Amino acid sequence: MFLLFLYKTVIGAACTINDLFDRDIDRKVERTRLRPLASGLLTPFQGIQFLGLQLLLLLGILLQLNNYSRVLGALSLLLNFSYPLMTRFTHWLQNRQT
């Protein structure tokens, strides 16, 4: 079970979602301007294709779990998609240095 969750973390679909949403912002930030989508190395369509592959792999993980865990795993996708959007409306989720 632990290995399945470790595998989910390594797949990193949330990072891809964040990079897709923030690609225009990332171009303007020194620390993130060289990310593949921000730099133009990958197109947004290629990013979406990669995200689709990641989600397909995650579905494979979900199918290995019991029904309760499947529901929780599917609901966690809502957090993965909403996190990049929430950073536009609140500072709660951002790691800021003061």
UniProtKB/TrEMBL annotation:
Main location: membrane
GO molecular function term, any single one: transferase activity, transferring alkyl or aryl (other than methyl) groups
Calcium keyword on record: no
Family membership: Belongs to the UbiA prenyltransferase family.
Cellular location(s): Membrane
Name this polypeptide is given: BnaC03g62160D protein
One term under GO cellular component: membrane
InterPro entries documented for this protein: Prenyltransferase, UbiA_prenyltransferase, UbiA_prenylTrfase_CS, UbiA_sf
Cofactor(s) this protein requires: Mg(2+)
Protein's UniProt keywords contain Ligase: no
Keywords: Membrane, Transferase, Transmembrane, Transmembrane helix
PANTHER family registered for this protein in UniProt: 4-HYDROXYBENZOATE POLYPRENYLTRANSFERASE, MITOCHONDRIAL, PRENYLTRANSFERASES
Membrane topology field: Multi-pass membrane protein
